[in-house]
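Help! Submission page says 'invalid entity' but I think these are all valid:
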Amino acid sequence: MANIPADLKYTKSHEWVKEEDGLLVVGLTDFAATALGDIVFIRLPEAGEEVTAGESFAEVESVKAVSDVFSPATGKVAEVNEALNDAPEAVNEDPYGAWLIKIAGTEATDELLDASAYEAVCAAEEDA
Amino acid sequence: MKLLFERSRTGRGQSLIPACDVPAVSFDPSLLRAEAPRLPEISEVDLGRHYTELAKQTHGVNDGFYPLGSCTMKYNPRIDEEMAALPGFTGIHPLQGEDTAQGCLEVLFRLEKLLCEITGMDGMTFQPAAGAHGEYTGLLLIRRYHQARGDAARTKILVPDSAHGTNPASAVMAGFSVVSIPSNAQGGVDLDALRAAVGPDTAGLMLTNPNTVGLFDPNILEITEIVHRAGGLCYYDGANLNAIMGHVRPGDMGFDCVHLNLHKTFSTPHGGGGPGSGPVGCKAFLEEYLPEPRIREENGAYRFCTPAHTMGRVRSFWGNFLVAVRALTYILTLGREGIPEASAGAVLNANYLMNKLKDSYDMSFDTICMHEFVMTLERLKHETGVSAMDVAKRLLDFGMHPPTMYFPLIVHEALMVEPTETESPETLDEAASVFLGILEEARTDPESLHSAPHSCPIGRPDEVTAARSPVLRYKFAQ
């Protein structure tokens, strides 16, 4: 079973979210990273760009496929994890350490899932 | 195996260039390099051996079964190659005047008529170099059409979620944004989702039928009508024409423009990356926007002409002409009876193989398929740990090319099998027994499958490192 830390919030589209210093930190879950396989490239937005809840803000390319990453909130990109440009494999190695972006001007909404709700989402997809 | 650069020895055998017998032309010094390029120096025999060795490590249709789904790896008749090698075709120069190239113009003119008949279109351009380039050209047609009507609001192209990745990519390249339409439980377009998605911003719909899971969408007339009623155009991706040619025409399904993959459906060897040919056909109302030049017949001679509101050129010269020669040969060889027989054979072969496998392998859709079928190995992976990749790799040990893997993306652990019409029942029986044998191995000895293939010069290339840090040129020692 995928690692799903209890202190994070989640989206149905497999992003994790954490509030930190007034910003929303966003990354890809262990389930997503495992399903994608070895990640070889991540196209990240630039700091200052607007992101919209439910819309794609980044692309992740693995050996299998290219997938969109969806924003959990509407706001402005405050910070981008530039280290992923050279080492995208960090998302496979440490999905909850290798954040993608930090979003400013927003907060975690009630629409986000807690760990147990997200675990149910993953279980349903495993069975699908 | 050594690279040519590693085999190179200074001064060793190269061809002797004859003395120059035309006036020398001098270039501006800024265009000249100071040093000769460091090309490998190697004798002809060693060069020949190098490429022969490489050729021995490949797998082509001439080596064995090649059911690479979506790619239509049919046998390419030798007579196509013979025609394409005629000196009148190979010795021609693209800048030659039309009076001295009448035979070549006639090839394109006659092929256009035949392909328009097969697709139900009125006009065609042969400029696009291959399929995705054809998609791009077709989308520019749609764009020009809306622009000419002064309708700037149509910015969206609808693409089903089962589509080949080139569809959304081409739409974005052509300046559109993409709306993904979900599939229904039968693998076709979800009509309600389509109705909800169309509107005054709809430029068009891109569709292949049969679709990427190998199923013919029975709602096709309703689909194209929904798009037309909303004011959009319908684009037919000819990727899967091999299933229907001579039986159903995209033009009769309601499509306004189409691209074909001549190299697939009309047989040019295409496993090595080219050349392809992606002609784009359209209904009469779009002809005025086609790329220039087109060819018309005038008093028994063939002439270039320019469509009234042409989009210009999408490629230099006349497209990949020799692929067109092969396609014309193929169509004339098969004839009015042979073309529909070929597609019927492709569908029969796919269903034959699917039925031999479906009690053992899970099919993504349990129904009659068209020219290809998609299996899902998700259950096998859960039960044994053996993945679609492992099965595909193991097939290599039996002299078979693997099916397409992990595509379409809507099917998990997908293997997509397209036998084509040129395979015999014996080959299909043999392939079925190989597939069933591997399934047995997956249950008894899954470990050995993880390291398959065991008999190939290269078994599992490191795709991750290749993608993360590709080496794209030779690094000289000094």
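Support: the input was valid. A stray whitespace character was the problem, and the output above is from the cleaned input. The mean pLDDT of chain B is 94.
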